[in-house]
Amino acid sequence: MKLANNIDNRTCTYLLILFITLTFLFITNSSYAVGIDSNSPELSAAEAELQGTITDEFGAPIKGTQVEVFTYYFSATLPTLAVATTDENGHYTIQQFDRSARPGYQGIKFSIKGYQVYRSLPSSVHIFNFRFPDVLSSVSGNITLDRLGAIPIPGYTVSYDICVSSGHCMPLHSAITDDTGHFTITYIESDYGDPGHRGVNADPNHSGFEIGKTAISPPPGTLYGVVNGFLELANANVRVNGTVELVDVGTTKINLYGAFAFFNLLDKEYSLKITPSDWDAQYFVPIQKNNVRPSNTPLAIILPPAPDLKPPVTTDDSTLGWHNDDQTIHLGATDERSGVQTTYFSLDNATFAEGNVVSINGDGVHSLQYFSIDKAGNQEELKTVKVKIDKTKPYVVPPISMSFYQTDVINLHFDINDPLSGVTLSEIVLDNSVIENPTSFELLALTVGDHAIHITASDAVGNSTEINFVLHISINSAHFMEVLKIGQDRGLIDNMGIYKSLSEKAKHSSWDALEKEISAQSGKHINSDYASLLLDDIKYITTH
After folding, report:
1. CA 538 to CA 529: how far, in whole Å?
2. How far is CA 146 from the centre of its chain?
3. Which residues contact 455 (CB under 8 A, 6 or more apart)?
4. Which of 102, 158, 428, 525 could form a disulfide with 73 if both were Cys (CB 3.0 to 4.6 A apart)?
């Protein structure tokens, strides 16, 4: 009786601890295995059991989930140790399975909403609860046929796998590539091993996977129902552009590597129609290949060349605008098909000659015409380029007369010109002052004597000219009388008596008396600047 009471007490204690633990797990909603309290009595292998609850992401129980305990120690398979199924409360209990069988290499697996769950199961864990995650892990990438220049493979199944220490790989979830070969796999993360034992698998036998890659090519021999191949031109080293039609199946474009592929085909004979693009129609003609069956071996198709109907293209290395030196022009011709036979040119309407180097000398606008012929006899349309040479400085033509009386209205216009590239800059300096062109001077604006004129000019290509001229202003007795009259009219002499006195002395060429009277009245009844001009005129008259 005492022994029975002890057993009942021990059982009650265990059940109480188990109840408290389950209540804690339910409240915290843990999604990982949790061990029992360390103060609980140890269970023998025969007494070992595993229990827990499986719920969805909202905490609702999931009924009918089969939970398996398995081992994976150096095994090509995953032997099952025990199985249980969740009830209407999502609860399961696995009774009395042998924890001593390969300890440390046991796991738990089940399927929930189509996703596989694999978790390690330490020997100390007796309670495993799982809640479907709010956010799933995911990986994306592309499946391509790399041997044909990365052609995307549609409709191909790819999975995300984990591998245990034995090398056995298990898919967590899979996806099917779209028309562009793209896939996105969502999965529930596993706690097996390190990241080096997980990855995307494009091998239907799950014998290995690609780690860290987003563009994956299936292993050789794993694709079925495939018609693929390479297209090459018989005698032209150019990229092939166009379309390939698999009759009664569909059409695809030739990729950058001259390759094509069709997938998911029935095992029967097909016909291939290969059509060039508008541009490539000059290189090959459409062909049809019959009795084509799906195979892993690519077809090597040599495209028959189209006749060369396109003429060569010739260019020159001339530059626009004017040049101040002789020019050498190089002609370059290309022909993508048969090749260039001959290039011809004509300079300034001379007879056409063979060659691709043209020397052009001398001023003027030269006309260079050229064309080429290829080895198939196609002649290019005539091309024309203008080559402009100006090695001559601008010229300057002065006015007809550069000598005037002081009483003249002086109009100056210098013809500064460059008949080729044209004058871009010119300057006229009179007695160290820049003047306009043309320019005019009113009466008495210039003193008598010689005035220096300096002219500079340059054209569009840098040819420049510098030239000097002399503008001569003179006076005599008769014109001196006009100078006095102009001064009196302008109020530069403000006394009529003085004006008459000056005029009388000038009339009789009394230059000494006239000079003394002007000097005496300067700044008084005669404007001082005007007086200086009169004195200079008297000096000029008396010395010439």
Report:
1. 15
2. 27
3. 396, 414, 416, 426, 427, 428, 429, 465, 466, 467, 468, 469
4. 102
Number of H-type helices and E-type strands within the chain: 5, 40
Closest CA to 226 of 260, 175, 189, 194: 260
- Taking a C-beta distance cutoff of 8 angstroms, is the pair 273, 245 a contact? yes
Angle at 123 between CA 122 and CA 129, to 5 degrees: 60
Query: What angle is formed at CA 332 by the lines to CA 327 and CA 334, rounded to 5 degrees?
Result: 170
How buried is residue 257: exposed, middle or buried, by Cβ count under 10 Å (0-12/13-18/19+)? middle
Q: ∠ CA(299), CA(302), CA(308), 5° rounding?
A: 155
3-state SS of 424-491 is: EEEEEEECCEEECCCEEECCCCCCCEEEEEEEEEEECCCCEEEEEEEEEEECCHHHHHHHHHHHHHCC
Residue 526 CA to residue 321 CA, distance in Å, equals 61
Query: In this structure, what are the phi and psi dihedrals at residue 233, rounded to the nearest 5 degrees?
Result: -90, 145
N residues, the chain: 544
Distance, C-alpha 222 to centroid of its chain:
39
Name the one residue in this structure whose structure tokens are 């700044």: 523
Q: Are 87 and 62 in contact (CB under 8 A)?
A: no
Buried b (16+ CB within 10 A) or exposed e, 127-149: bbbbbbeeeeeebebbbbbebbb
C-alpha to C-alpha distance for 89 and 450, rounded to whole angstroms? 125
Residue 84: CA count within 13 A, CB half-sphere: 19
Tens of pLDDT, residue by residue over 444-503, are 999 999 999 999 999 999 999 999 999 999 999 999 999 999 999 999 999 999 999 999
**Pairwise CA distance, residues 51 & 12, whole Å:** 18
Residue 318 reports pLDDT greater than 50: yes
* % of the chain at pLDDT higher than 70: 82
Q: How many CB atoms lie within 10 A of CB 94?
A: 20
Report helix angle 528-543 to 511-521, nearest 10.
Answer: 160
> How does pLDDT run across 23-77, given as a tens digit for each residue?
333 333 333 333 333 333 444 544 568 999 999 999 999 999 999 988 876 555 6
- Per-residue pLDDT reduced to its tens digit, 195-240: 556 778 776 655 555 655 556 667 666 677 888 888 887 766 666 7
Nearest 5°: phi and psi at 381?
-65, 150
**Residue range 518-536, pLDDT digits in tens:** 999 999 999 999 999 999 9
Q: 308: alpha, beta or left, given left = phi > 0 and alpha = psi -120 to 50?
A: beta
**Contact, 422 vs 460, CB < 8 A?**
yes
pLDDT at 22 over 60: no
Q: How far apart are the first and last CA of the chain?
A: 167
